Amino acid sequence: MAENIHGFQGEVAGLSLTDVIQLKGHNKYTGCITVEYDGNKGAIYFVDGEIIHAEQGEQTGEQAIYQIIKWPGGTFNIHPEMTSNVCTIHYRTDFLLLESLRRLDEERAGSFGSGNTSGPSVTPRRTMSKVAARLQEISAITYAVLLDKQGLPLQDNSIEAAALAAKGLFLAKTGNQFGELMGLGEVKAAAVQTRNFNLLMYDSKQHYLSIAVKPACNLDSVEGEIRTALIPGK
């Protein structure tokens, strides 16, 4: 009897990790690629072909990607069933690869880390509203999106923004329905806390603000950080 195998396992001779990442980008892949080299392990998470999160040892985000791509070889496994609610990377995948290769070239030339190397440009970053960008500086927040009353994300066309906006709009409308049934009026703020996902929603005259929070974080303390970030001095 054949075994039930989830995802691809094995090696492809002559195919670099950057080739694999580019293929997954073209295929609009959602899932995870795990990589192993010389006892080191890494994981790269995709949503609709874009890298949203990476882990390598204690490193996460862009630094984890840069470290993994430095490896000269190894093995990789494809896991379409593995996903992540965490978003630590906001650069486009093509830019991440170019930046990784640039760093690798400079490191080989012995010039990486000198004052002449320029960091990533702001231009290739996925755009988002100033409010959302400010909130994502809070360590407990994995993503934030400002959306209009129809549920459309403002200044953010990423798949993460669309998914989080849909959750925020659903929470707002459901809360308003309960508020109407109970004679309480419209809901101006709501929080949902589950084992794997926490969500905060705020309502204003023209917009909703939907915020994804790490599951282990206390929502009261996170709300305090949000107030401090958005209303300095409060």
At the fourth level of CATH, the homologous superfamily of the largest domain is: Dynein light chain 2a, cytoplasmic
* Name of the CATH architecture of the largest domain: 2-Layer Sandwich
Nearest-integer average pLDDT: 81
Instruction: Give the helix/strand class.
Output: alpha+beta
DSSP strand content: 15-25%
Could you tell me the CATH topology label of the largest domain.
Answer: Beta-Lactamase
Beta-strand segment tally: 10
**Helical element count?**
6
Number of individual domains: 2
Oligomer: single chain
Roughly how many Å apart are the termini? 65 Å
Radius of gyration: 20 Å
Summarize the structure.
The chain has helices spanning 17-26, 62-70, 93-109, 130-135, 159-181, 219-230, and strands at residues 9-10, 31-37, 40-47, 50-56, 59-60, 75-79, 141-148, 189-193, 198-203, 207-213.
Write a structural description:
- With 234 residues, the chain is an alpha+beta fold.
- The chain folds into two domains: 9-106, no CATH class; 130-230, 2-Layer Sandwich (Beta-Lactamase), CATH 3.30.450.
- It contains six helices and ten strands; from the N terminus they run βαββββαβααβαβββα.
- The strands form two sheets. A six-stranded antiparallel beta sheet has the order 1-6-2-3-4-5. A four-stranded antiparallel beta sheet has the order 7-10-9-8.
- β8 (189-193) and β9 (198-203) form a beta hairpin.
- The longest helix is centred in the last third of the chain and has 23 residues, at 159-181.
- It is elongated.
